[in-house]
Amino acid sequence: MRPRAKWLLTCFLSLCALLLLINNYLYINTYAHSSKVISRFQERKRQTKPELESRSPQQSPERQKGYTIEVNVGLVVVHTTVLDKNGHFVSGLKKESFKVFEDGIAQNVSSFSQEDVPISMGIIIDSSGSMRNKIDLVNKAALAFIRASNPDDQVFLVGFNDQVELLEDYTNDIDAITDALENTVVTGGTALYDAIYLGVQKSQNGTKPKKAIVVITDGEDRDSYYKIDELVSKVQESDVQIYCVGFLNPVPEKGLFGHWSKSVPEKAHDALLRISDETGGKAYFPQKLPELNTIVSEIAHELRNQYSIGYVSSNSLRDGSYRKVKIALDPSLAATNHVRYRRGYFAPKAQSD
Length: 353
Known about the structure:
Layout: H1 3-40, E1 53-54, H2 61-64, E2 75-84, E3 98-102, E4 105-107, E5 109-114, E6 119-126, H3 135-148, E7 154-160, E8 164-171, H4 174-182, H5 192-204, E9 210-217, H6 228-237, E10 240-246, H7 264-279, E11 282-284, H8 291-303, E12 307-312, E13 322-329, H9 331-334, E14 337-340, E15 344-346
Parallel strand pairs: 1-8, 6-7, 6-9, 9-10, 10-11
Antiparallel strand pairs: 2-12, 2-14, 3-4, 3-13, 5-12, 7-8, 13-15
């Protein structure tokens, strides 16, 4: 290499090293400053916990009756989806095809079925201002989803912008839901985490054996009382499957140091994925609005074709601890199929005297 070329290469490498040092210095100081800012503003945007307040007429006592059910706390039921390599549902498997582990310890399967079980289900729709051009198709897809579901399902409808509102309480009256959708007002911000948190809470109070919510949104959370970690803890302690459909903005191109931080669409993507994965549901990120019809059809079909696998935990301690669950297929099936299920649950706590 010529001396001048060698000198230029040395200068270039030195400049790169200097830029990296400067960037690291700025990053560390910015992070430290951000940590101080975050700690200074740990208080919530809103001091009052959100609640679902219905704009529907007051429900009759008969309709409100029976929202809580007795549960055999010793039985852990895991609703499990089995898919082949092409994403098609695999049906007809036997109990012997599955192995269940809790915190790495094998469990004895005591109940097993694959049947269309009625669901207590919530449909949670983003009604923030950015949804204005999407809301008509979203409403039609929501109605198509309900029509494709089990007729014995009980459904409630939630709309959210910077507030969360129960638009229609538990019902199987398609006309009531249609009316609520048609009267949705599209405006305001996005309290996504609050909507999911309250939707999970509401679904848990349903009387049907399975619980699920479907969330349709086009943005990241901006206005919630609850934080993402609080929401994840809530979904972990529930038995509610969560399906998220996110119409997110494209991820922008990153600069030289962009890998050190995530863009807003990336954060929104990761949040929806994390929430769904914890519950055995699924997150969808369609590129075009018409894809929604296919997605809701797939979700309805999945909910009606899952395996319900139950076991009594070999860990009899009532300590409130989080326990990881693993569902494994027989080795002869595992190579060509995969399973989706909730990742774990919180054990019940012993009641203090």
